[in-house]
Every structure is written in structure tokens, then in C-alpha cells.
Amino acid sequence: MVRGWFLYGAETPTVRPWRLTLSVCVCVCVCVCVCVCVCSISSVSTVQVSVLLPACSSAPSHLDSVLNNFSSFYLIRKLPVYELLDRHFLETVVYHGHLTLSLDKDSFEILGFEGKPSRFKHRAATRFGLSTLVSVDLTDSSMAPGRRSYLRLLTGLKSRLQLQTDFLLSHHPGGGASLQPLLSRCDWSQHRPEVNCSVLMDLSCPAPRSCDPHSFLEWLGAVDAGISCENSSSSFLSSFVCPEPSTIHRHALSVSVSGMLLPHDIHRLLQELRRYVEQPRLASWVSMTVRGFADSPVSWSNHEHGFLRGGENFYTLTMFHDHTYQLHLATGAHDVCPP
Amino acid sequence: MKQVEEKEEASVYQRVVLKNASPYHYLKVRLVLEDESTRLSAVELKYFIITGLKSLYGEVGAAVNFDVLKYDEDTLTALLRVYSRSLVKLWSSLTLLGSYQNKACAFRVLQVSRLDPRSSLIIRIFSEVSPFLLALTGNSRDLHLD
């Protein structure tokens, strides 16, 4: 039986034969309540993926190869947003894409473009609250270079609301050359996702099928953070223990990859983990947690995402030996329920 | 017939949606002291927070049960776990810690800690809050690129 737990989450990667799809996400949120995100239609970049392999002391070679070959990405500092509307850039790089701007009221009025009120209103008396969502389909005919809507947005970003911020930029395989004209005009640096591996000794692992989703996610977070589960009931500091029933594994491997991660890399990792868990092992399950950007203005299926208190935007996929899985998706309380 | 039943069972999919059902909230807090050489142990930190709860909410506040899941003495960073119903009490007492009882100049400039009455401490607490511990362990705001 397959169970899907929706604790409200981050976008699961879809596999589509994108020829050349640009995926860009801002990594620094400008502190004046302006947040810019350019996403491809159905695949949203993620910031970290964590993998837990119980009863494993070292990653198999195939898995290790996948973990160390995630696509590199670029950090572009102080990129004016209007550069993303460059005619050559749109025609040669972007096949599918939305430009999403989350603006405060003043910025929205200065920009002078269509938008809709944010779902996350902080003041009931104000129609637009603290932010407005401007979402532009760059592939729409009305946004073709030279058309009126295109010129209106370009003029707004160039002369009225000169948004400039740091961007994380990446490309799908084979698309690197098309980015060179843009990079040549900017201050940029190339980065590779950071991989961290740790072997955990004598780890108490719960049975994923037997404990409730919140307890299981809490335990996974504790393993990720290096929190000890060995607390007695009389401990002054903490009463946190591993959910029961539990099994002690002599070794467990915890791997995390951080950076701007593309969906096709996540998908390759997913396939490799499936092949790993299908083989007979001491442990009958593996888990993969994928986290999205907390400050992203859009999340599941390009629905609006709000940070609120913690910007929750992740999913955890637990795969079992018998080809079943549990999927926990978590998102903010006011976000739209993931599909 | 048995094979068909097994196939039907394998294809069953169950979806459960839980909203605001997390029993706990998690806070990642950092204590910033004016005197950077001052160090607190985990026990002292917990006691410090309990006194803040007690000063703001009395005995009921002092009875709020929270856990110090992890503590880094070098950076004075702690991961706290508290029941969701007590989050507001804990969070508000952290915010007002050191500035609640003294209203005049001590509130503006200095707050004197009970831990060390000889020194004056300015206490600032930075925090991240989430109903999911997994959200705190991989926050995109902690992504630093050189």
C-alpha cells in the first residue's frame, strides 16, 4: 500500500524532456520585501537534499557518483532584473518560464504592471496587504519582444523600479553556452553543490510504517541536526527519544547536498536510491528529504508560497524494499495544499 | 484470485492531509551577549529561559515544558522544542528576556543578567521557528556562497 502524507510541501521533480530550460532562483531576499523568482513551469529548484541510509557505512560507487556529480550553478551579484527580459536571452535561453515578482505595495505601484493581491495579507484594511504577486508568462505571445506588454514591463524595470539583486542561475545539460552573453555583462562566480557525508554509529531508527508522520519527520530532523536521542525521562535538558518501536543499527550514512539543485539531478538520485533499496539489505528502507527555498514566492505547482514563521517547503520520500513508499510533503499553514 | 487481490492491495493509495497538527514547534535561537567571552552551559541557558518565563508569566510560565535538543556553547546557539500551545509564551519571553522587569534606563541600554550580576549584558536573541525540525536543519537562508 502506498501512503502519501500531505503536511502541507516542496515541489516534487517532474521528468520532462526539456530541451533547454532555464531555472533561476534568487538566493538572497532583498530586505525591503521584494522577492524575485524566475522558475520553469513545472520544475522548481531546490536548496538541499538529504539522504539517510540505515545500516550502511559507505555509499555504493554508483550512488557516490551521482551525489558528487550534481550540476554546477552560477552566482550573479547585483543583476538588474530587466536583464532577464533581454531579447536575445529570451529567444535563445528561455523556452518555458514565468517571471514572478513579489512586491510590496509601493514597489508595485511604481512598476506599473498588472498583478494580483498576495494571499498573505497582513493588513485587512489594505487591498494588497504587504505584497502583490506579479506573475508573467515569458512564453506568452503578449510578452514577445516588441509587444506592448513586454515594453511596458521592460520600461518599468529599467527606469521606474530598478530592481537589482543577487541571483542563482543554472542550466540544464547542454545549455551553458547560451548563458555566456548574460554572464559576460555581470559579476558572476561558478559554484558546485556542497556534499557532506557522515557515518552515524549505533543509531536508533524507528519503523517508518509504525510511527506517526510528525514523529518520523522529527526523528529525521534530529538525525540531520546531530541531536542525540539518548535522553532519560528524568533529564533536565531534553526528553527527546526515538519513536518506538525502534531498531539499533550499527552504522547509518547521512548525506546532504546543498546549493542550487536541479530537478533532473534529484531525479537521478531518486532512481539510484530505488535501485539501492531494491537489493536485499539489513535495512529495508531509505529516505530522501528535498528542501525548497524558504523565501521563494512560489512553491508547489507555481502556487504562491509565504515564509510566515519558517518558510517550510520540503518533502520526504521514504522508499521500502517492497516497492512501496511514503511521501511526506510539508508547507506553510497558509499555502495551497500540494496537488 | 489471490494474485489479483495482491495486485489490488499493492495499488492502493492513501492520502492524509494534516493541517496545524504538529504537536511541537522548534526554535533555533542564538544568544548574543555584549561580553562575548561570557559562556553559558546548556543547563544555565535552560534555567535562564525558565526565569524569563517565570518573570513574564509567573508560575504557569515556569511550568512550560520545553527541551534543549542541541546546544553549541561556542556560538551560544540552541535548538529548542516546545509544545505548540506554549509557543507564544516561550517566544514572547525570549523576546522580552532581560528587558521585562526594568523599565527605565536598564531597558534601553543595558540588561543585567542574574547569571552574573557584576557584568552588564546586552542580550539579543535571533531565532528561527518552524513546526518541522527538518525545516530548521536545511534553511536556505543559511546557504552561504563565497
Automatic annotation (TrEMBL), chain A:
Classification via InterPro entries: RNase_P_Rpp40 (IPR013893)
TM stretches of this protein: 20-41
Gene Ontology terms for molecular function: ribonuclease MRP activity; ribonuclease P activity
GO biological process: endonucleolytic cleavage in ITS1 to separate SSU-rRNA from 5.8S rRNA and LSU-rRNA from tricistronic rRNA transcript (SSU-rRNA, 5.8S rRNA, LSU-rRNA); tRNA 5'-leader removal
Lineage: Eukaryota, Metazoa, Chordata, Craniata, Vertebrata
Keyword annotations: Membrane, Transmembrane, Transmembrane helix
Name of protein: Ribonuclease P/MRP 40 subunit
Pfam families from the UniProt entry: Ribonuc_P_40 (PF08584)
Keyword Membrane tagged: yes
GO cellular component: multimeric ribonuclease P complex; ribonuclease MRP complex
